[in-house]
Amino acid sequence: MSSGKYGKLYGVGVGPGATDLITLRAVHILNSVSVLAIPKSSEHLEPFAWRVCSPIVRENSSQEKLFLHFPMTKNPKILIPAWDKAFSEIGKRLEKKRNVAFITQGDPSVYSSWSYLLEEANNRWPGIEVEVVPAVSSITAIPAILQTPLADGRERFCVVPGTYGLKDLPELIRHFDTIVLTKVGRVIPKLVSILKELNLLQNANYVSYGTTDRQKIVKNIETIQNENCDYFSMVIISIRKRKGALKGQNIETE
């Protein structure tokens, strides 16, 4: 229990999918708070973040599992009331001085529903104590799977959502050596077309459900452009024009 006016609020990342990539800090918090706030996008499917972390959450009859609906839509008329309802439910627990951990897949600071709660927290519960628990992100996990460095020496990389960032690719390849495209499941045909125009199809690798038992790696993404690709998917475009430090190339000097 918290000693302040409210319970303590945690944003806890549970990583990209493999349970054994959850941090020790996250394991400790998930098993010590009195409420686990678990976002879900569907009324019928088990939330992905909960599926990842539930094996390490010990049986505890006094711990509440609070499932909160966060609909997958961009319509603010649907989103805002849903978020408000979810935040109100969390607030009821915090006002009883119960510590609440909001779990999120990946890292809480990267394209996460947690960021909206974090922005609202101090307005709704002035002076509340908040802790953000970082996690292994798919942005680093997927390059590890592919054994492709994101950046080295003078190289630069960027992260862009595939859902609305594809139009920027011609400009991005001028400035970055590695481009990480997230949430590409619905845009693979368009991405293939753009990469062909840029002569970069051979530089792109696709990974879905990375680090899980459903992991899929595709080296030639043209072969999947007619498939129903997974939402939890990513494409790494590796150009790496500025590598070569170990060969005495591209070394920045004063």
From TrEMBL:
InterPro entries: 4pyrrol_Mease, 4pyrrol_Methylase_sf, 4pyrrole_Mease_sub1, 4pyrrole_Mease_sub2, CobI/CbiL, CobI/CbiL/CobIJ_dom. Keywords: Cobalamin biosynthesis, Methyltransferase, S-adenosyl-L-methionine, Transferase. CDD domains: Precorrin_2_C20_MT. GO terms for biological process: cobalamin biosynthetic process; methylation. Pathway: Cofactor biosynthesis; adenosylcobalamin biosynthesis. Its EC number is 2.1.1.130. Residues 8-219 form the Tetrapyrrole methylase domain. Pfam families: TP_methylase. Transmembrane segments: none annotated. It is an enzyme of class 2 (transferase). GO terms for molecular function: precorrin-2 C20-methyltransferase activity. Belongs to the precorrin methyltransferase family. This is Precorrin-2 C(20)-methyltransferase. The lineage of its organism: Bacteria, Pseudomonadati, Spirochaetota, Spirochaetia, Leptospirales.
